[in-house]
Design a protein that fits this description.
disordered N terminus, about 170 residues, mainly alpha, 3 strands, 3-stranded parallel beta sheet
Length: about 170
């Protein structure tokens, strides 16, 4: 009797494990190959270049003011020097605020541009997993560290790539 219960339990366990198919895909690899991702990265780089150019222009103005202060310090009154130092400090603070704001805007823009790409990739992974009757898909990207050994299982990378190419 105990043998029959044990055999039945093993049969149920092996049937359950046979139904749970595990697959893996390197999300990072797929993502960087997507044309939409490349366009998003180019747009982000262009936006960043604009901010950097403006910051460079602001820094040039600050440097010009600092040079003028240094060149004229001997001939200016203490009041004029103090006012000029305060003006330069305000310029410096404004540049710092600008840089923080620019960083925030770049992060918002990245979310805005990358989210639809990630959603498209996730939809492709979902569709391929359903087609292949996969129960679990693990991210095998090195940056995520989710899969440390991937011998066996099903690699959905090629299928997802093909799905995205449709």
């Amino acid at each position: 009797m105990k043998k029959i219960v044990l055999i039945a339990a093993l049969a149920v366990a092996s049937a359950a494990s046979a139904q749970s198919v595990v697959a893996h895909v390197n999300v990072d690899s797929l993502l960087v190959q997507m044309p939409e991702y490349k366009k998003a990265q180019e747009a982000l780089q262009a936006e960043q270049a604009k901010f950097e150019a403006e910051a460079k222009e602001m820094n040039a103005e600050l440097e010009k003011g600092a040079q003028a202060l240094q060149a004229n310090a001997a001939t200016w009154t203490d009041l004029r020097k103090n006012q000029e130092q305060q003006r330069l400090q305000e310029m410096y603070n404004n540049i710092q605020e600008y840089m923080q704001g620019a960083q925030g805007q770049l992060q918002q823009k990245e979310v805005e541009l990358i989210t639809p790409v990630l959603e498209k990739l996730q939809a492709a992974i979902n569709a391929v997993a359903e087609t292949k009757k996969v129960s679990y898909v693990l991210d095998a990207s090195q940056s995520k560290g989710q899969v440390i050994y991937a011998k066996g299982g099903i690699n959905l990378g090629a299928d997802v790539r093909a799905y995205l190419a449709k």
